[in-house]
Amino acid sequence: MINIAKEDHIANEYPDGTGKQALLRIRNLCRTYIMGEVRVPALQNVSFDIGREDPEFVAIMGKSGSGKSTLLHQLGLLDTPTSGEIIIGGENVLKMSEAQKARFRLERFGYVFQEYALLPELTALENVYLPAMALGRKKKECFKAAREVLGQVGLGERLDHRPREMSGGEQQRVAIARALINKPDILFADEPAANLDSVSSKQVLELFRKLNREMGLTILMVTHEPEDRNYVDRVIWLKDGELEQHMEMLK
Amino acid sequence: MLSDHKLALFLAQKSIIKGNKGTLGLTIFIMSLVFVNSVFVSSLFLGLTNTINDQIINTVYGTVVIEPKKDEKFIDDVYSLKQKISRVPGVKGVSAQYIMGSVMSYKDKNGAWSVYSINPDDEVTVTTTHNFIIDGEYLSKLDENDILLGKEIAGGYGGDDESRSLGGVKTGDSIDVLFNNGVKRTYRVKGIFGVNFQRSDNIAYISQKEMTSVTGMEDKASQILIRTEDVGNEGQFIKQFLELGINEKIKPWQDYASMVKEITQSFDIISMLISGIGLFVAGVTIFIIIYMNTISKRRQIGISRAVGIKESVIINSYFIQALFIVMSGIIVGLLIVFYIVAPWFIAHPLDFPMGPVSLLILPENVFINAISLVIAASAAGLIPSMMAVRETIIESMWGD
Ligand SMILES: Nc1ncnc2c1ncn2[C@@H]1O[C@H](COP(=O)(O)OP(=O)(O)OP(=O)(O)O)[C@@H](O)[C@H]1O
Ligand SMILES: [Mg+2]
């Protein structure tokens, strides 16, 4: 275990002397929800690095209510921490404006949520090419890229179907394709397989592992399935909002 | 920037196509009604004032009027003055009138009216009264014992104030006229006219020749009416008349239309009020529709933002939807106005004391109504969409 407590407030240095910089570095991250009089400390002083060497596939695990989703939302810039630092690719992302964060999410992050989170008015293809379109890419290019990523996730047809006309597994693969279209650095997934049957669930995890190995995609995945550990490089355990066991190297 | 607009347009288009068609149709219909309503009201009022103006010009004053010099009762040297005026290019007609008060009596009825003397050949070049003979004939130059009565004087032709009339004089009847200078004559009624403008239908006409014998004066007039080409450029003509060295008072017809000015002001207020209420209704409708839309798509808005779609793009997509609804409403409204409402009112003008009133649809008026509706509706659409992106992404996606 590395004692990271000594490395407070370090952004762009290479403290371990390896000359390698972590893709994602968080320091003393806290998120306290305030509900009227009640303060819920969902995350407390969480610090770790991801992607110091090769692109990693990391699982975030812990009991229900331990703060897994909260952590993922902070890292994915969907929420703002109460205190702490998040440095991605050397950039202090918490200093960015909302518009800059939106751009950052669009260009460098991909998201997959438990409930698929597709836009019901759009077809599968449109859902996928939307983020590409938002980047200002040409329509033709967007279509081409969308078909490509849909192929990668194993969906070659039924592309003009709307989400409600597709199975859960198919919808989730559309969501993964959408997450991939802008070639992100990091993919965030919050229990992506929780609503799927075991076959679809396996497909998703294998796809993730393949994307990590072959495309060099860093993946942070919240899960509560113990057997999912078979697919990942390491597990970050949370307990009551704190890092319980910094690293569990699996491979 | 352009790609942001494209994206907003794309999202708006999908939302409209995949949205509830019934709600959309109804909203567009409401917009069209609001538009038709405000165009109708303002066009009706414009039509009303237009009718009054037309009546004043066509049946009473022409476009420019020459009055006696200050402190004088009559215009002198009328003949040469008329000659001068008619030579000005653009002058279509000149008619001198001598006006005298009188008491007319028929059977047991009598009343006070003004008698206008005219040269009918001149008068027809200025006013259109000769086109509104409802009984008998118009005067001619050589008539001596003949009088032409407005229907309000004659009575029995559906005037506005029958009780003050002579109670049913017909063509061929004789009436007694006692002029203000004490001269008393008996005239045969040659004809009766009705222009449906109370002010004009209370006039009696005799020939200039006859008036000369009543007054014993020649070449004098109480006023000279001038009809110029087109209405609206009276000022230019007045300038030319002044340059001719005419010393009499020269007035444009508008000076006699102070009543119209007051009415126009009241109409403007009423029509602004009605349009204002319409705009408010349109605004509230759009607000509710877009608000409901953002509420039901709260999660989708959250998802879009999470993926990295800018807030401005999302706001813009709702703005475009509001714009689409109001524009469609205006297009439907224009069709209703120009293919249903306007043709109907042109075929069936409304009867008013000032004459038949139809809609006067001015392009600039339609345009102003359209623009106000667009502004009201798009502002109303902007508010809920801005509200929708104010909450956090987490709240939008998972909040209750
Ligand atoms: N928006 C919120 N407002 C207040 N408290 C919250 C909010 N979101 C989460 N919490 C609280 O923060 C703590 C951590 O929640 P979080 O959703 O991160 O847990 P989790 O590990 O993802 O749980 P699960 O496995 O059930 O998804 C919980 O106690 C939860 O009740
Ligand atoms: Mg969770």
Rg on CA atoms of chain B, Å? 31 Å
Order of helices and strands of chain A: EEEHEEHEHHHEHEEE
The coarse overall form of chain B would be elongated
Bound molecules: adenosine-5'-triphosphate, magnesium ion
Describe it for me?
The complex is a heterodimer of chains A (251) and B (400). With 251 residues, chain A is α/β, with parallel strands linked by helices. Chain A has a domain of 169 residues: P-loop containing nucleotide triphosphate hydrolases (Rossmann fold, 3-Layer(aba) Sandwich). Chain A has six helices and ten strands; from the N terminus they run βββαββαβαααβαβββ. In chain A, the strands form two sheets. Chain A has a six-stranded mixed β-sheet with strand order 6-7-8-3-9-10. A four-stranded antiparallel β-sheet of chain A has the order 2-1-4-5, with helices on one face. In chain A, a hairpin with a 2-residue loop joins strand 1 and strand 2. The longest helix of chain A has 18 residues. Chain A starts with 23 loop residues before the first strand and ends with a strand. The N terminus of chain A is likely disordered. By secondary structure, chain B is of the alpha+beta class. Chain B folds into two domains: 194 residues, no CATH class; 167 residues, no CATH class. Chain B has twelve helices and twelve strands. In chain B, the strands form two sheets. In chain B, strands 2-3-8-5-7-6 form a six-stranded mixed beta barrel. In chain B, strand 11 and strand 12 form a beta hairpin. The longest helix of chain B is centred in the N-terminal third of the chain and has 41 residues. Chain B is elongated, with a radius of gyration of 31 Å. The model of chain B has no long low-confidence stretch (mean pLDDT 92). At the A-B interface, helix 2 and helix 3 of A face helix 1, helix 9 and helix 12 of B. The structure holds adenosine-5'-triphosphate and magnesium ion. Adenosine-5'-triphosphate binds next to strand 1, strand 2 and helix 1 of chain A.
